[in-house]
Specification:
The complex is a heterodimer of chains A (about 100) and B (about 425). Chain A has about 100 residues and is mainly alpha-helical. Chain A has a single domain (about 5-95), classed as Cytochrome Bc1 Complex, Chain D, domain 2, CATH 1.10.760. Chain A is about 55% helix and about 0% strand. Chain A contains seven helices and no strands. Chain A has helices at about 5-15, 20-25, 30-35, 40, 60-70, 75-80, 85-100. In chain A, helix 1 (about 5-15) runs antiparallel to helix 2 (about 20-25) and helix 5 crosses helix 7 (about 85-100). Chain A is globular and about 30 Å long. Chain B is of the alpha/beta class. Chain B folds into two domains: about 20-70 and about 110-140 and about 290-365 and about 415-430, FAD/NAD(P)-binding domain (3-Layer(bba) Sandwich), CATH 3.50.50; about 145-285, FAD/NAD(P)-binding domain, CATH 3.50.50.60. Chain B has twelve helices and 25 strands. Chain B has helices spanning about 5-20, 20-25, 30-35, 45-60, 80-85, 95-100, 165-180, 200-215, 230-240, 290-295, 335-355, 405-430, and strands spanning about 40, 65-70, 70-75, 95, 105-110, 110-115, 120-125, 130, 135, 140, 185-190, 220-225, 245-250, 260, 265-270, 275, 280-285, 285-290, 305, 320, 325-330, 365-375, 375-385, 390-395, 400. A five-stranded parallel sheet of chain B has the order 5-2-1-9-20. The longest helix of chain B is centred in the C-terminal third of the chain and has 23 residues, at about 405-430. Chain B is globular, with a radius of gyration of 23 Å. The chains are: A mainly alpha (about 100), B alpha/beta (about 425). At the A-B interface, helix 1 and helix 4 of A face helix 11, strand 22, strand 23 and helix 12 of B. The complex binds flavin-adenine dinucleotide. Flavin-adenine dinucleotide binds near residues 44, 70, 76 and 292 of chain B. Flavin-adenine dinucleotide (FAD) binds near residues 43, 73, 80, 137 and 162 of chain B. Chain A: This is Cytochrome c domain-containing protein. Chain A: One of its GO terms (molecular function) is heme binding. Chain A: Keywords: Heme, Iron, Metal-binding, Signal. Chain A: InterPro entries: Cyt_c-like_dom, Cyt_c-like_dom_sf. Chain B: GO terms for molecular function: flavin adenine dinucleotide binding; oxidoreductase activity.
Chain lengths: ~100, ~425
């Protein structure tokens, strides 16, 4: 489990009190973050059809693509990527890079 | 836990104890596994199915039981393509076999009621299924009281088809085929909140598409209880370019809200005093949470269920969660994508609570594509964060497709809409049929 990433964040949050805790409450658990993406990209990022398959995409390429979307590229990713900061994007990149390549259809 | 299965297990234990076989057989891993936490899910649409599938992944030691009356589930998403004659109902008919393959106990039965204090579902056949957690995901019911003259007995002649099953969708399409060449299709649209905010306008679009091909002189009229609607500028651009003069919209300020329906005469009486005759009349009634949630006392006076947005728990009902169209999750719309998203958050929260792990909070997404035409897609999406006890849209993200986009983008988005359908169904039901 990746709770070793989450735990310090919770502790900091408790230490600084509820008001600031809000800003720090974001998780860097790749699976939790990815749950918002898989409705479109498919289970584990294995897509059926036109939405790109992102399972097994190398981390560097994933981060490059997300940066391009933040700069306005894409039909819909340009409206989603700006909500994800560097830490969240890195966690997502690791999560999807770790999914195995899809079996050929 | 006193459902048939456990009763049988106890009977078996008694029998074994009498023969002395119990000691010889111990330890019994299968019985042991059943002593793990049990999660009972009432309703197996997008919300309930997604939650069941996610729980199998995130809490593999838990026993997950999903109950739904329907063996076959015709989806809201893409049901307008069936109304418009682009797809057969079979292409959007899903089932629970993928869930069963993933280890979910699937029970097909009518649920008479749920008991939040016992976290139990009472089935019409007399069975009672209780768990350590109860997830209630019954979707919506129509609020017939809100529309004079319209009721369940009217559905044959004046369908709602929201989505209402394969027969209702086919009936509405059949009425379009049978209507006069220069006829008028009228849709009445309720005020917010209701299931799928852009749905009525996608439906008007795909009806117009059918008429343009088969009844070139026929038209579509929307009678809306609202002054503005989802993706309005994009729909208007699409209607102007693809169906000029064919789609007319009247809103609240035009007095267009439907007040009463004359079913026999296929007429709508509007708040503004107009009496509007239709050749095909599609009434989308006002809605509220599914009966299971309301009867159990989970809903507010307006008929929707308030929830704790961190884990979609029903406040004041320990161990009970409510998901999907039945809940108040504003500003998230009532969509299959939202239902699936909420189910992921709820399943994660349940798994973390069972494991004694601290909760982690991730952004939520909703995304809804609509087809203006088979090769013309538009979309709206939003990213949300939990802000205190509310869901809040992230300022720097979200929005609709570009108003100025060209035909290549519209075509690409129509392909993405079809792909999203397949992926969302796979991530919710574990497998499924796909529309063209
Ligand atoms: C025209 C139209 C177009 C749409 N298009 C889209 C789209 O493009 N994208 C999108 O994201 N969403 C779309 N939707 C919305 C989507 O259909 C709903 O938001 C989604 O189905 C909500 O999921 P749910 O699980 O809350 O409810 P449902 O999917 O309705 O599931 C509820 C389940 O509970 C079961 N149930 C209820 N009561 C009982 C009982 N007493 N006993 C046993 N079982 C019971 C029902 O059988 C049902 O299977 C559309 C809807 C419509 C009508």
């Amino acid at each position: 489990m990746q709770s070793r990433f989450r735990l310090p964040i919770v502790l900091i949050a408790l230490a600084v009190g509820p008001a600031q805790a809000q800003a720090l409450a974001g998780t860097t658990d790749g699976a939790d973050l990815a749950a918002a993406c898989t409705g479109c990209h498919g289970p584990g990022g294995h897509s059926a059809g036109a939405v790109p398959d992102i399972a097994g995409m190398p981390v560097a390429e994933f981060e490059r693509r997300m940066a391009a979307f933040r700069d306005g590229e894409g039909t819909i990713m340009n409206r989603l990527a700006p909500a994800y900061d560097a830490a969240a994007t890195a966690a997502l990149a690791r999560y999807f890079a770790d999914r195995p390549e899809p079996a050929s259809p | 836990m006193s459902d048939g299965h456990d009763a049988r297990r106890r009977a078996l234990m008694r029998a074994l104890a009498g023969t002395g076989l119990l000691a010889a057989a111990a330890p019994m891993p299968i019985l042991g596994a059943q002593r793990g936490p049990r999660i009972v899910i009432a309703g197996g649409g997008f919300a309930g199915a997604s939650c069941a599938l996610a729980l199998r992944r995130l809490a593999p030691a838990a026993r997950v039981t999903l109950i739904d009356r329907q063996r076959e589930f015709v989806t809201g998403p893409f049901c307008n393509t069936v109304v418009g004659g682009l797809n057969p109902a079979a292409a959007i008919t899903q089932d629970h076999r993928g869930l069963a393959a993933a280890g979910v106990d699937v029970v097909h039965a009518e649920i008479e009621g749920v008991d939040p204090s016992a976290r139990a579902a009472h089935l019409a056949d007399g069975r009672r299924i209780a768990g350590d957690r109860l997830v209630v995901a019954p979707g919506i019911d129509f609020d017939y009281d809100a529309l004079d003259g319209y009721g369940p007995e009217a559905l044959d002649r004046v369908p709602a088809a929201w989505p209402g099953g394969a027969a209702a969708l086919r009936r509405l399409h059949g009425q379009l085929q049978a209507m006069p060449e220069d006829g008028r299709v009228v849709l009445t649209v309720p005020d917010n909140p209701y299931r799928c905010p852009p749905g009525p306008y996608e439906r008007a679009s795909l009806i117009a598409h059918f008429l343009a091909e088969h009844k070139p002189r026929a038209r579509v009229l929307l009678l809306d209880a609202k002054n503005h609607f989802s993706k309005e500028p994009l729909f208007r651009i699409g209607w102007d370019s693809r169906y000029p003069g064919r789609v007319e919209w009247r809103g609240r300020d035009d007095g267009a809200r439907a007040m009463a329906i004359d079913v026999a005469g296929r007429r709508v009486h509007t708040v503004g005093g107009d009496e509007i005759a239709a050749d095909v009349l599609n009434v989308i009634p006002p809605q509220r949470a599914g009966r299971l949630a309301r009867d159990a006392g989970l809903a507010d006076d307006a008929g929707w269920v308030p929830v704790n947005v961190h884990d979609f728990a029903a406040p004041g009902h320990e161990g009970v969660h409510v998901l999907g169209d039945a809940i108040r999750a504003e500003p998230m719309p009532k969509s299959a994508y939202s239902a699936h998203m909420q189910a992921q958050v709820c399943a994660r929260a349940i798994a973390q609570a069972l494991a004694g792990e601290p909760p982690g909070e991730a952004p939520l997404i909703n995304a809804c594509y609509s087809l203006v035409a088979p090769d013309y897609g538009i979309s709206v999406t939003e990213v949300y964060r939990i802000n205190g006890d509310r869901i809040a849209a992230v300022q720097q993200a979200g929005g609709t497709s570009a108003l100025a986009a060209g035909p290549d983008t519209r075509r690409a988005e129509s392909e993405y809409a079809r792909s999203l359908y397949r992926n969302l169904v796979r991530d919710s039901f574990g497998s499924g049929a796909a529309p063209g």
